[in-house]
Amino acid sequence: MSNWADNPRLNTWLAAQQTAFPVWSRETGQAWDVTVDSLDRLEQLLRERFASRDDLLAAEEAEQPAVMVPGWYLGEVLNRNCGTVWHRNPVEPTHPDQPKTPFVQLPENPGAEYEDEDDLPLVCNPFTEIRGLLVRGPSYHLRQVVNRYEAVGQLPDACHTR
Predict the structure, then answer these.
(1) How far apart are CA 110 and CA 87, in angstroms?
(2) How many domains does the chain fold into?
(3) Looking at the domain assignment, is residue 1 inside a domain?
(4) Mean pLDDT, consecutive 10-residue segments, the chain of 162 residues?
(5) CB 3.0–4.6 Å: which of 36, 46, 140, 157 could bond 136 by disulfide?
């Protein structure tokens, strides 16, 4: 099995987002510090930028920086504050149930025996969360992603939620 956490497809995507981030950041006119608190600003920016889920999906399909960089940023907030790591299918998915976009996950414990899928480390697809802003409505917030890690007891002590 190929490595989902380190492969050319993932590494190329990550490098592209890191390169696009400074331009995107300047265009937003805001400072981005990769903290959990910055997710509120990211959410506001996305809600203002996209009027509908269809607008968002079209931008995502076209891999526009207006969606790709925020998705990368959300993943980086989780990586740097909660200990997750990026993953991406090393080959282009052929089945509709396979994720096309990268996602983050806490590292698996190599010695752990997982009874079932519910015991596996929590996975977060930043693009699914961004889409959720426009589907779930104004009561849903990006920082709830961090709350999910807390709720299932998978939040490392190193995670800074403030």
Answers:
(1) 17
(2) 1
(3) no
(4) 85 98 98 96 98 95 96 97 92 82 85 66 92 94 87 58 46
(5) 140
- For the record, the structure tokens of 46 come out as 């996305």
- Count Cβ atoms below 10 Å from residue 99 Cβ, excluding itself: 15
Confirm whether 2 is domain-assigned.
no
Does residue 157 form part of some domain? no
Full residue range of the structural domain in which residue 135 is found: 8-109+117-151
d(CA 38, CA 31): 9
Q: What pTM was computed for the model?
A: 0.89
